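Q: Start with the shorter request: fold the first protein.
A: Done. Sequence, then structure:
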Amino acid sequence: MDVNSKINWSPGMEITAKTLIGLEEKLDFQRRVAIRAALGNTRMGMVPGSILSCNGSFFKNTFEIEHLQCKALLPSGRVVDADEQAIVPIPMLFGDRYYLTIGVGDGLVEFEKEGVAYTRPIYEYGLKTQEEVETEDVMPMMRFSVKDGVFSIDTDYIAPCLSLNSEPRFEEYIDRYVIQMSLITSHENLENGDGKRALLHYLFILKSFGLKNSVHDFLKMLQEIAQAIDYYIITPNMEQPVEILEPSQIDVQLWLNWFGNYLIGAVSVLDKVVLEDKTIDYDALLRQAKAELYAQLHEELIVKLLAETKEELLKMVKEELENSLDMQTQKLTDYINNTMKPDLLMQIQTELKHSLNLLEDELSEKIYERLYEQLFEHLFNALYVPEPESEKFIPLI
C-alpha cells in the first residue's frame, strides 16, 4: 500500500467494519514506515523504555515459558508486544548455540479489554540458529548453549536493543573500555603522532558517550576504534594481520567480548614494541638544512658569483699587470741604462778597438805590399834592358 494513500471519506458514506479495519491497517502501516524511516535501517530490538522478562525452564523436549514480557521492533518494522505464557518445542539440533526467538504469525487472537473486543497477531516462538535468525523476521530473546546434548541458558546474553539505556550492562562495558583505552593511550611504547591523537580522541568520546545513544551508533564507534588500533598498532607491529569481526545485532554480547579482548591484545602488542630514539639533533638538522639549501642554490650562487666577480677580477688583474709591467719596464730601463749600456759600450769599444787594431795591421801590411809592388815594378821597368833575340833555329829537313 502506498504510504500516501488515504480513505476517501465522503458525506453519507457507510462506515462498515471493513472500513475501520482498513483504516487501522493503514495507520499501522504508516506507523511501521515512520519507525523504519526514523531508524534508517532494518534494525531490531527492544523498544526504549520497555522491559524484557522471559522466565522458563526445560521440560522433556520443550522449553516452557512461565511468563514473557517483551515489546520489541522486528527487522520488518512490525512491533511485538507480548505478555503471555508459551511452550516452545525443541527441534532436532545439530549446533552448539541457539536462540529463543519471537515473531508475528499469520493468525489473530481475539480478546476483550474493558468490554471492548480486540484482536492481536499470534506470536510464534522457536529455537533457531544465528543464520536462521538473520534471514527471518524474528527477534532473539535468549541464548542457549548445547554441550553433549544438554541445554543451558547463557545468562550473559544481551538481547537486541535500540537504545543503550535498555540494558544496564552497556554502562559496564563502556567503563571497562575506558580503562582499557586509557592503558593504550598512556602506554610508554605508544609513539606520539597521529595514532595517539586519534586514540585520545576516541577515548574522550567514549568517556562522554551517554546511554541515551543508540546501540547502532555505539557499535559503529567501537568499529572505528578497532580499525584505528589495527592501523596504528597491530598492523605495523605484527606479521600476521588480525581480522576485525563485524558486529551482529543478533548477538552483540559476543562481539563486545571480542572487542574487549582486542583491546587487551593491543596492550600486549605495545609491551613488545621498542621505540626508536627520535630525539631531534638540531645541529645535524641545521647541517642538513644548510646542505639542502646549498644544493638547491649552488648553481645559482655560482653563476651569480661568477657574474659579480668576473669584472672585478679582470679589473684587478689588469691593474696588477699594468703595475707589474710599469715596474718591470722601469727596472729594465734602469738595468739597461745603468748596467747593460756601460758594459755593452765598453765591450763594443774593446771589440772595436781590437778590430781596428787588426784592421790597421792588416791595412798596413797590404799597403806596404802594394807600395813595394808598385815600387818594384817602376824600378824594374826603369832599370831592366832586355837582351837581343837570337835568330831562331830552323832545322833543315
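Q: Next, the second protein, separately.
A: Sequence, then structure:
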Amino acid sequence: MGYDPNHFIGSPYICWNQTLNLRLALLLSRRVFEDLRTRVFPLSRLMAPKADSSKKADPKAQALKTAKAVKSGATFKKKAKKIRTSVTFHRPKTLKKDRNPKYPRISAPPRNKLDHYQILKYPLTTESAMKKIEDNNTLVFIVDLRADKKKIKDAVKKMYDIQAKKVNTLIRPDGTKKAYVRLTPDYDALDVANKIGII
C-alpha cells in the first residue's frame, strides 16, 4: 500500500495552519500508512463470533423450568441488617444447658384462686331480687370483684347446671359486685331458686 504526499497537503489539516512544515506532514503521512500496514489484528475481532449450540437449551424445557421457579416462589430472603447499639464487639453466649434442678423451686403447684366457688359468693334474697326472679326469670348473686361476665356465666353453669342467657353486673356503694343472671326460656328461675334454697 503506497502513500500520496498530496493527501495531507491539500487537506484542511495543512491549510488552516501555514506554519506547519511540509516535511513534517510527509513524515506524518508515511508513519500513518506504515502503522496500518504493520498492525496485527486478532482473528477473533475480524471474524463473527460463533453461536454456541451446546448452551442453547430447549425452549419447552426452559419454559417448564421458569414456571416451576415462579410457582415455588422466591427462594431467597433478604436478610435484615442488624442495628448496632454499641461500639464494642463481644462474642455471643450461645451455650444453653438443660435444666436439672436439685430441688423444686415451688413446693406445691399453684391453685386457681378464682374458681366457681370463689366467683359466686351467695345469692341475694331481698324483695327486689325476688321480684326479679318472678317477673324477669333472673337470679341475683353477689360475686367476686375480679369476676367478669364470662366467668360468672361459666360458674353458674358449673354449679347449678343452668344456662344463662345474659349477665349484667354492677358495683354497689358498699364495694361488692352484684350480678343479674338472666336464664334462658328453657329454665324457670323459681324452680332454680327452690333448688338452691333461696325461697
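Q: Describe the second briefly.
A: The CA atoms of residues 157 and 163 lie 6 Å apart. The two ends are 133 Å apart (CA to CA).
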